[in-house]
Amino acid sequence: MKTAQYLLLACCLFLASCHQAEEDFYTTAELSLIMPEGIQPEQIQGTLTLQNLNTLQTTSTSELTANGFTLQILRGAYKADVEGMIRYRDQNSQSHTAHFRAHSDYVALSTLPLAKVELQMTLLDP
Question: Which are the contacts of 115, defined by CB distance < 8 A and separation ≥ 6?
Fold first, then answer.
C-alpha cells in the first residue's frame, strides 16, 4: 500500500516538474510603439511580425492594444516588423491619416516573466 502511495507521489512530482520546465521556454512579450513627437493618436491598426533569428519561425498578430502588442512567445532573439495605419491629430489639432512602420533587426525577448521592447514608429506618408 505504501509503495503505491510513494509511486503516486513520485508521478505527481515528476509531472509538476515537467510542466514548470515547459513554461520556462516561453515569455510574455510586450512590444510598445513610440509615437513621433507632436502627434496625438486617435486610432491605430497594425500587424506585428516576429521572426525568431535561430529557428526562422515567424509569428504574427494584429491584436493591437493602446500603443502595443502583447503575446506569448518562445524566448530568444527576434527580428520585429510592424506595419499599419494611424489616424492622429497634429499640434494644430488637424486630423491626418498615414501609413506607419516600425522595425528592429534584433530584439531580445528572453526575460521572465515579461520581456518589454519599444519600437520607434516612422510615418511613411505624413
Answer: 27, 28, 29, 30, 73, 75, 108, 109
Residue 125: burial class (beta carbons within 10 Å; 0-12, 13-18, 19+)? exposed
User: CB count, 10 Å around CB of 121?
Assistant: 23
> Helix H segments across 39-80?
none
Alpha-carbon distance of 76 to 111, in angstroms, equals 9
Rounded to two decimals, the pTM is 0.77
pLDDT digits (tens, 9 = 90+) for 61-97: 999 987 799 999 999 999 999 999 999 999 999 999 9
Question: Among all chains, which residue has been given the C-alpha cell 508521478?
Answer: 11
Asked if 104 and 48 count as a contact pair (C-beta separation under 8 A), the reply is no
